[in-house]
UniProtKB/TrEMBL annotation:
Keywords: ATP-binding, Kinase, Nucleotide-binding, Transferase. PANTHER family: 1-PHOSPHOFRUCTOKINASE, 1-PHOSPHOFRUCTOKINASE-RELATED. InterPro entries: Carboh/pur_kinase_PfkB_CS (IPR002173), PfkB_dom (IPR011611), Ribo/fructo_kinase (IPR002139), Ribokinase-like (IPR029056), Tagatose/fructose_Pkinase (IPR017583). Signal peptide: none annotated. This is 1-phosphofructokinase. Gene3D superfamilies: 3.40.1190.20. One of its GO terms (molecular function) is phosphofructokinase activity. It comes from Brachybacterium faecium (strain ATCC 43885 / DSM 4810 / JCM 11609 / LMG 19847 / NBRC 14762 / NCIMB 9860 / 6-10). Pfam families: PfkB. Belongs to the carbohydrate kinase PfkB family.
Length: 318
C-alpha cells in the first residue's frame, strides 16, 4: 500500500486569461476550474489512476468541499476533522506561457487537531507500506513535524518519503542521518536549500550538460543516510542517486501547458515504478515521463498511464 500525507491540502483553482497578465489591469477569465490539490493528494491521484492501492491522509472538516472532490475522483482517503476550511490556491495562466501562483497559508490546527492527524496517519500505516509526506505544513504544525513523523513511521516498519521545502526541509536535513527518509524528492532549488548552494546554478549547469554539481549534491545526501534522492531539474530533466550510484535522464519532449503538479506527478511515477520492482533507471525514466505528461495537461491535472510515454533508453548512469 502507498499512503500519502498532505499536511496542508488545498482547493486548486486555475484560471486561464488567454492573454498577458497586466498588473493593475482588468482581465476576463477564459477558463476556470477547481480541482483537489496539495502535494500528497496529487501523488495519490497519480498512483490511483495507475491502478495501485493508495490512501490519502489529510486534515479537513467533514463538510469541506475538498472531500466531495476526492469522492468524485474515487480516491481512497481518510481525513482528520479540523474546524477551519481547507485553503484555496489560485493559479493564473497567462501568455507567453507564464504561470502565476497565489497560495493561501491554510487554517491553523489546534494542538488537539495536530495529535489527531498524527494518530490517524500512524493508524493507517502498517509495516511494509510506503508513506509519502508531501508539501508545506499547515499553521499549528511544528517545523520539525516531518522529522518526528519519519522517526515514528520507520519505527512502524514503513518506508518513508519526503517532499517539502524551506524550514521543514532544513529541519529534516539537520536531523540527518538520525531521521533519514528512504526517499527524498527535492527540485534544484530545494537541493540548494539543503546544501547551502545555488539551486538555480545547479539546474542551469545540468541544462548545459554539466552534471557533476547536482550529482555530487544528491550523492552527498544519499551518503548521509537518504535511501534514494530524486532531483527534478525542470526542463533539464532529473537525476536519481541511490544504491551508491547516480543516473540522469533528460526531459522527454512535450508541450508546456501548466507546470502545476509536475513534481508531484514525477513522485507518483517513481513510487509506481518502485512498487512494481523496477530498476533505478526505470524508476527515473517513469518519474520523468509522468512529470512531462503533467506539464502538457491543464491546471493541476495528474496524468493517467495512457498519457505517459516511458523511454528508459534515455537514462545514463553517471
Amino acid at each position: 500500500m502507498i499512503i500519502t500525507f498532505t499536511a496542508n491540502p488545498s482547493l486548486d483553482r486555475t484560471i486561464d486569461l488567454g492573454g498577458p497578465l497586466t498588473p493593475g489591469g482588468v482581465h476576463r477569465i477564459g477558463a476556470d476550474r477547481t480541482q483537489p490539490g496539495g502535494k500528497g493528494i496529487n501523488v495519490a491521484l497519480g498512483v490511483h489512476r495507475a491502478g495501485l492501492p493508495v490512501t490519502a491522509v489529510l486534515p479537513a472538516a467533514p463538510s469541506d468541499p475538498l472531500l466531495a472532490l476526492l469522492e468524485a475522483e474515487g480516491l481512497p482517503h481518510r481525513s482528520s476533522p479540523i474546524t477551519g476550511p481547507v485553503r484555496t490556491n489560485l493559479t493564473v495562466l497567462s501568455t507567453p506561457q507564464i504561470t502565476t501562483k497565489l497560495n493561501e497559508p491554510g487554517s491553523a490546527l489546534t494542538p488537539a487537531e495536530v495529535t489527531a492527524l498524527e494518530d490517524l496517519l500512524l493508524e493507517t500505516a502498517a509495516a511494509g507500506d510506503a508513506v509519502m509526506l508531501s508539501g508545506s505544513l499547515a499553521p499549528g504544525l511544528p517545523v520539525d513535524e516531518y522529522v518526528r513523523l519519519v522517526r515514528r513511521l520507520r519505527e512502524h516498519g514503513a518506508l518513508v518519503g519526503v517532499d517539502t521545502s524551506d524550514a521543514p526541509l532544513a529541519a529534516l536535513a539537520a536531523a540527518l542521518p538520525h531521521a533519514a527518509p528512504d526517499f527524498l524528492k527535492p527540485n534544484a532549488e530545494e537541493l540548494g536549500q539543503i546544501l547551502g548552494t545555488d539551486g538555480a546554478l545547479l539546474e542551469q549547469q545540468a541544462a548545459d550538460g554539466e552534471l557533476a554539481g547536482v550529482r555530487d549534491a544528491a550523492l552527498d545526501l544519499h551518503h548521509r543516510g537518504v535511501g534514494a534522492v530524486l532531483v527534478t531539474l525542470g526542463g533539464a530533466g532529473g537525476l536519481l542517486a541511490t544504491a551508491g550510484s547516480a543516473w540522469y535522464c533528460p526531459s522527454p519532449p512535450g508541450p508546456v501547458v501548466s507546470t502545476v503538479g509536475a513534481g508531484d506527478s514525477a513522485t507518483a511515477g517513481y513510487l509506481i515504478a518502485r512498487t512494481l520492482g523496477r530498476s533505478p533507471a526505470e524508476r527515473l525514466a517513469r518519474a520523468l515521463a509522468y512529470g512531462t505528461a503533467a506539464v502538457g495537461l491543464p491546471g493541476t491535472t495528474i496524468p493517467r498511464p495512457d498519457q505517459v510515454r516511458i523511454d528508459a533508453s534515455r537514462v545514463v548512469r553517471l
